[in-house]
Amino acid sequence: MLLVRRIASILLGFLPLILIGAGVVSVLREVQAHDPSMYSVQGGKHLPDAFMFAGAGCIGLFGCYRLWRANGSWKWTLVPVAVIFFAVAFPNFERGHHGTPVERASFSALQRLSAFAGSATQLAREQGEFVCDRSATLSASSLFARQGQALSYVIHCVPDATGPTLGTPPERPGTLVFAVSPDRKQAWFTATVLTHSTDRHAAWLTRQGQPFVIAAQLQSKS
Hints:
Blueprint: H1 2-33, E1 39-41, H2 46-68, H3 78-95, H4 101-127, E2 141-146, E3 149-152, E4 154-158, E5 175-180, E6 186-193, E7 198-199, E8 203-204, E9 206-207, E10 210-211, E11 214-217
Parallel strand pairs: 4-5
Antiparallel strand pairs: 1-2, 1-7, 2-3, 5-6, 6-8, 6-11, 9-10
């Protein structure tokens, strides 16, 4: 029976170790978020998560240790089992219906891109052509940050484009890319986001695994 309990103790101890590792990763992310070369997503609770996961992991390991001991009891399996339940339930509870901070930041960028594309298209219909103005002010700040400071959305103009710009993305997250055809009758809108809570470079905003592009075209006058 002792051998069975010790095997169970070893098996149940893997998840607490993983939780402690997650706590260490959260601390590293907090450090990275204040690195001048790194961009980050606002809303990530790295240090609170670090203490929470590491603490739960230590509690789980203590239960496994008591289960391992010769005078241990099967009742100590309740401790690592409770930790396992916490590891499964807490992330889902924290995300709720809003998703992770990375998902929220990407959704916010999607909304901003859609609004920007709509206003630029409306202006183009009035003027008869698409004109990219990189100095235009975008009122809302993004959910991306650098050194703890929120980044505003910026416009990147691509003239004489033959399609959406999907090469190497601009380094800065929260960049709205406005590509205009040579005749200024077509335009393509894309945006950059972060795929991780901290990163040195942005990536293209995607939907269902594909870069998200809003295409607009002015109708030719008959």
